[in-house]
Amino acid sequence: MRVLWSVRASARHYANNTFIANVLLHKRYYKPWGATIGLELHVQLAAAQKLFSAASAKWDDPPNTNVDFIDAGLPGSMPRLNPECVSLAARAILCLNGQVQPRSSFDRKHYFYSDQPLGYQITQQRHPIGRGGFIELSQADGIDYTKRVRIHQLQLEQDTAKSVHGVYPGYILTDLNRAGVALVEIVSEPDMETATEAVYFVRKMQTLLRHTGVSSCNMEDGSLRCDVNVSVYRGDEDRLSGTRCELKNLNSLKTIRGAIEAEVSRQIELISAGHRVKQETRGFDAHSGKTVLARSKETAPDYRYMPEPDLPAVHISKDWVEHIRSSLPELPEATLSRMTRQYGLLPEDVTTMLGEPGCITFFELAAKGRDPKRVAAWITSEIFGQLSYRAQRLNDSTLTVQQFTGLLDALASNAVTSGQAKLLLIEFMDGDKRTADELIQARGWEVMSDLGRLQDLATQLLGKHPKEAAEYKAGHKRRLNFFVAKIMAATKGQARPQDVSRVLKECLDEK
Description:
The longest helix has 20 residues, at about 255-270. The protein has about 500 residues and is of the alpha+beta class. The strands form four sheets. Strands 1, 2, 6, 7, 8, 11, 12, 13, 14 and 15 form a ten-stranded mixed beta sheet that branches. Helix content is about 40%, strand content about 20%. It starts with a helix and ends with a helix. Helix 5 links the parallel strand 13 (about 245-250) and strand 14 (about 280-285). Its main location: mitochondrion.
């Protein structure tokens, strides 16, 4: 607290100097501790074939069915660079505001483990394909200030095989389908200071890479994996002075937040107790909420990097880079600005739709000639709710734009009730191929528009429940809901609730 006291004293001493007082009283100087956070993201590219072989990149096919000689590390096999992966990597660095390098090359990173058949990983440690760039975090992303996180580099590399545990007790099985699948590793500068900033950085990265077709970025299936580097410092120290620990294989936004907060607390407790933070690689135990030691932190010499002798350098022309740049779709920030202006949508709704691949196109097709706010509300609540329940992506759903717009039009023309429209949506997403009109007719879901029939039902109902009717007349207005529910059940949901309420009120007033 000595630092905090001295800052306050200095602020009082320089009270006549507004500029100095404001600097001294800035919120960062009130923190007795600070954290320095950098991320390494491993992103599987959406390429049809692997990085250095013609084998399919479908790693979730039956085990060991998509394997070429180089993927299995067979002697004499040679890598051959897949140009589609180079294009996707270039798209990635360009959408991150970085630069495609005119010359890049590959290195061997040596380590021995069962998931690495070659005994080394082919990567781009020294001369990556992309450098520079940044991601800008702002209010649209969920924070109440602006934060720029710089990108250090983006490099192409091959993925490892998948280790399978628990099939045969005491054995670890190896599935080579994932070995050699193309990755880009995106390394940020240590610009983040909180777990919240790190989570929003990853979430915005997901949106960018999905939107530009670089990757599906699904953390749940491993197509986006995250390592975090964390150090702490006292408020009066250089923010880069702390000892860095790496947290490996964090596979969800919740895990990233929990791991960073736990590691920051651990390091602060160590230093406060007079101990030294050791440079380590650690994991996160979600059950205990603590980070656990995995191994001492390796450094570059431990991996014995050497130039890859079997692959030539990659030379990229300015014209090719401009061709890739011109093929990029409208980037999310531009889409957010345009859609809030063009359709009058809330930024949060646009941001939510941007996070789902294909959703912006789906929305714009559905919104033609319709209320865009109503379309957006149905997408972000009802459709996204169904997708979440089914653990499904919109692009993989059987729901078509034509079915969805038919549903909206039927609802707008009072052909169905809101409840029936939700049932239509469920049937469409269960795989029914019929149109909204066909399904409404088949289910007998036409809205009851005969108010005389509703009046007869209301009169009969009030006669059967005189006690509840008297309570309503005595001022217990919520009793109306009791009668509405009864009539909705009697009509099997085919009456509009607003019509039922109006008829009931008229009958009760007359009574």
